[in-house]
Design a protein that fits this description.
Strand order of the largest sheet: 1-2-9-10-13
Radius of gyration: 32 Å
Number of helices: 10
Number of strands: 13
Shape: elongated
Strand content: 15-25%
Length: 366
């Protein structure tokens, strides 16, 4: 029988190499395509996150405008600020599709402004005494007030007692190379932890009663707590001042003169009243708004961003100038006293604006 023809081994080898090359190309294309697809998904996801973040920031800006508008509207209604005003009432969330905006308002003038201790290049002795009495009310060492003052004032000596501040009131941080005090106004309450005598427990006790505003801020007698009101007078107690709180719940104080008629304040002489007068007001010149922006696009995984904004509300004169200089921390005590005794018929326009904004990735203490 004739023999069968045998295919050349070389042709088989070539076809095998070609097939293997094609398979490698297919695998390579698949890998590249997969990588491109994964990269595209990441880019789309990143774009979506950036869009969501930008939307949340827009929500925060919208909340800021709403808060400012609320204070402006309230300022047109009366010359006082009290817990009966619209800004003090719970504000329901504003819903915008899958987004919502929450606003919480706090009257900073219901607290003692730490920056009142030193302003216009001088120590405010009346404010210092009030702060010392507040510390006593809270069972804290009154010497902390001196340490806080020295942390702010421009000199390098301990107030009244003398001595080198950098030695006596060195910052508490053990790993800090710079032991010199900053000698400038505080920016936030947490800075107090750098002051001698202020630890976590002391700061927690103080936090509900103090604030840090970058200009002189009188205490609003229509919103101040009984503890802070008691700090105005030597020997007073928060229980006694609860009577003042009960009275103002029925009738808002419309002038500082109204409180001098109260039994616990009527005993003050003219000198004591004159010293306290610049520290007191019937309205508020600073508010803080906590804005919460929520994106509910993913059920169970809502994204939230927070912002705190400080809003100033100051009286303007006929030329449109504010009675409080926010940049330099100046206050016009005479204007403040006049404004406290003016009637609603003579009310001056208010300048309401945002002083500062701080963004938070988590809900701050408020």
């Amino acid at each position: 029988m004739p023999s069968m023809p045998v295919m050349p081994m070389k042709a088989d080898s070539q076809r095998g190499v070609a097939l293997l090359t094609i398979l490698l190309l297919v695998v390579s294309i698949t890998v590249v395509a997969g990588a491109m697809l994964a990269s595209q998904k990441i880019a789309i996801r990143r774009s979506g996150l950036l869009f969501d973040q930008n939307q949340l920031l827009q929500d925060i800006n919208a909340g800021q405008q709403l808060a400012v508008t609320m204070i402006r509207a309230d300022a047109k209604l009366n010359d006082t600020d009290s817990e009966q005003d619209i800004w003090a009432q719970p504000i329901p969330p504003y819903t915008l599709g899958i987004h919502s905006i929450g606003i919480e308002m706090r009257d900073e003038a219901s607290r003692f402004n730490i920056n009142n201790l030193y302003h216009n290049g001088a120590v405010d002795a009346a404010a210092l005494e009030v702060f010392q009495r507040l510390l006593t009310q809270l069972n804290l060492a009154p010497d902390i007030a001196i340490a806080v003052l020295d942390y702010q004032d421009a000199d390098s000596e301990v107030y009244l007692d003398g001595g080198d501040e950098s030695t006596v009131y060195a910052q508490q941080s053990n790993n800090s190379a710079d032991k010199n005090l900053p000698n400038q106004a505080l920016v936030n309450i947490d800075q107090l932890q750098n002051v001698k005598g202020v630890n976590t427990e002391v700061l927690a006790a103080l936090r509900p009663y103090i604030t840090v505003v970058p200009y002189y801020l009188p205490i609003n007698i229509n919103t101040a707590s009984p503890v802070l009101l008691a700090a105005l007078i030597d020997g007073a107690t928060s229980q006694q001042m609860q009577t003042v709180v009960d009275l103002r719940a029925k009738q808002v104080f419309e002038s500082i003169d109204d409180i001098w008629l109260l039994p616990m304040l009527s005993a003050l002489d003219d000198k004591q009243r004159k010293a306290l007068l610049p520290l007191l007001a019937i309205d508020s010149q600073a508010f803080t708004a906590l804005i919460t922006a929520t994106d509910s696009a993913n059920i169970g995984q809502a994204r939230q961003r927070y912002a705190t904004i400080v809003i100033s509300k100051t009286t303007t004169d006929d030329t449109g100038n504010s009675s409080v200089n926010n940049a330099n921390g100046n206050n016009d005590s005479a204007n403040n006293s006049d404004n406290n005794t003016k009637s609603a018929d003579n009310k001056k326009p208010k300048d309401v604006k945002v002083v500062s904004q701080r963004l938070w990735a988590f809900r701050p203490i408020f």
